[in-house]
Amino acid sequence: MHFTARILASEVRVRFAPSPTGKLHLGGLRTALFNFLFARKHGGAFILRVEDTDVARTIPGCAEKFEEILDGFGLHRDESPLIGGEYGPYVQTQRKGLYGEAAQRLIDSGHAYRCFCTSERLEILRKNAFRKQEIPRYDNRCRSLQKEESNARERDGQPYVVRFKFNREIVKFNDVVFGENIQTADEGDFVIIKSDGLPTYHFANVVDDRFMKISHVIRGAEWIPSCPKHLKLYDAFEWEYPTFLHLPLITKDGHKKLSKRDNSAFVEYYTQEKGFLPLAILNYLLRNGSGLRDHKTNYCYSLEEMIEKFDENTIGTRDFMTDKNSLEKYGRLAFKKATPDFLLNAIVDHVRAKLPHVGEDLLTSEYIERVISFLTNNEETFSCLSEISSGDFHFFFGRPENGEKLLTKYDVVTVTRVLDNVISLPHLTPAGIKGVAAAMDISAPDCFLIVRCALIDSFTGPPVGELFTFFTREECITRMNCVRQSLNVYQTQAVVING
After folding, report:
1. Which CATH code is given to the segment(s) 252-338?
2. Is the pLDDT of residue 277 over 90?
3. Residues near 333 by beta carbon (within 8 Å), at least 6 away in sequence
């Protein structure tokens, strides 16, 4: 069930609000993407806010890394910690005073109170609940404290937290994607300000969204159960609700949520380890339920095209499932769509990161352009840059070191004779190899396999004729000679054994 809210461009302000406690999750990137597209489509502002109230788990430099990743995907912010803006600071620990004032407002209005219960008492409550097989919750002991006593204990320096009065009731709200949602809220009085004076996630989330004038909250569906807390806080402040738009969960198999213990849960796996182009990953994240009008599954949309066709009312409710085949499909489409300059820079950056031993002579624009031309014209299946650093196309930036792989399939005498004859050919052509095979009375396919493995250290790969065309004759001879020379020791051993 969908509903269409009236959207005024001047009112649209959305935010992506990650916690700087680790690598950026794939779901986080998808949330950023949908916030970005929504803002650009409706002429509004896209904001990055860093929610770092879990100080113990905060990783220095993590927030800056998030901004770098978003830039790499073209998801440029209008306001952020690095960019600044009218509604900053955009890091929650720098807004501590605001939360304290907001909490005091709720205390004064009777919607919240100071709780002086010790951690030891709270632990006893938890253990008693578990023993009775009940859901642990606070027993509201400090709710009945008189204002005078609460103020006096605060002046005396007694440690406390601030709790929000949360009575059991039915809460209803509409979501752009999931339609009407009805929940029974029954969690007891929850903490909004911790003993260190910092807010809890739920409290800071609501306060910041209000003060940053967030019009639409776009986030993952895992936050739907938290909405009653947020809505009751809005009610207590007498604030208007933002419009909610929750995105389906990202799952590994259609059922199980993508675990943070899995490398494929994080953006860096796709960008750094696998080397998929940014546009491939963005299209991959849009494929389920899309959010694009008349979405074509075999097309790679540019960011500009995504913005033009974006329609929040087309987002589906079916959970997103990671799928290797779909990812590789978008990898191929993105590679074909990318400009030569973009590919050149992407390949150079990837090779330098993954193969630091590669010389600058193999990173020149002229050589990289030849690599791109080869892949574009000859390889329909090329999908990610890891294929040139550790996959089937690693031969672009590395020569075979020895002929050991050849000896797993052929005897050393046959291999050395084939290589000697091919190296002596005046011209390296497939026809020449067939001639060598006929003269030696061996099969032409075996002869081609030996030459291919000597050139790229693999029995599978591009046709030998394409390799001859890509490499210069001198490079092909150098590669075959290197393998041929490495076989001398095995040839000597064979002579000794036969003798």
Report:
1. 1.10.1160.10
2. yes
3. 280, 283, 298, 299, 300
The two tokens of residue 364 are 């020149």
Q: Where would I find the H helices in 244-383?
A: 267-268, 278-286, 303-309, 324-337, 340-354, 365-378
| 388 residue type, one letter | I
- Helix or strand or coil: residue 340? helix
Residues 6+ apart with CB under 8 A from 473: 427, 428
What is the pLDDT, as a whole number, of residue 499? Answer: 46
| Model confidence at 38: pLDDT above 70 | yes
Six token digits for residue 218: 């776009």
Q: How far apart are CA 99 and CA 203, in angstroms?
A: 8
Tell me if domain 9-247 and domain 252-338 are identical in fold: no
374 band by pLDDT with thresholds 50, 70 and 90: very high
Please report where in the chains the tokens 């489509």 appear, as a residue: 41
Q: Could you report how far apart the first and last alpha carbons of the chain are, in Å?
A: 84
**Residue 156 contacts residue 212 (beta carbons within 8 Å):** no
Tell me what pLDDT residue 401 has: 86
* pLDDT the model gives residue 225: 94
Instruction: Tell me what pLDDT residue 261 has.
Output: 75
Give the predicted TM-score (pTM) of the model: 0.90
For residue 69, give both structure tokens: 């990743």
| Among the ranges given (21-25, 158-162, 228-232, 260-264), the one the predictor scored with the smallest mean pLDDT | 260-264
DSSP 9: G
Domain spans of the chain?
9-247, 252-338, 399-498
Looking at residue 271, what DSSP letter applies? I
> Measured at the alpha carbon of residue 117, what is the angle toward residues 116 and 118, in degrees to the nearest 5?
115
Tell me the fold of 9-247: Rossmann fold (3.40.50)
Place 2 in a pLDDT band, splitting at 50, 70 and 90. Answer: very low
| Domain 399-498, second-level architecture | Orthogonal Bundle (1.10)
Q: What integer is the mean pLDDT of 398-408? A: 91
Spatial separation of the C-alpha atoms in residues 218 and 14, rounded to whole Å: 7
- What is the strand order of the sheet 179-185 is part of? 179-185, 169-175, 243-247, 216-220
* Amino acid at position 342, single letter: F
Q: Please, what sign has the CA dihedral across residues 274, 279, 280, 281?
A: positive
Give the span between the Cα atoms of 78 and 356, in whole angstroms.
Answer: 36
Q: If you write DSSP's letter for every residue of 244-256 in order, what string do you get?
A: EEEEPPEESSSSS
Closest CA to 15 of 175, 237, 176, 213: 213
Give residue 210's Cα distance to chain centre: 28
CB 33 within 8 A of CB 282: yes
Query: How far is 486 from 403, CA to CA, in rounded Å?
Result: 6
Cα 450 from Cα 285, distance rounded (Å): 42
Copy the structure tokens of residue 392.
């089937």
For residues 260 and 25, the answer to whether their CB atoms sit within 8 Å is yes
Residues 6 or more apart whose Cβ sits within 8 Å of residue 213: 13, 87
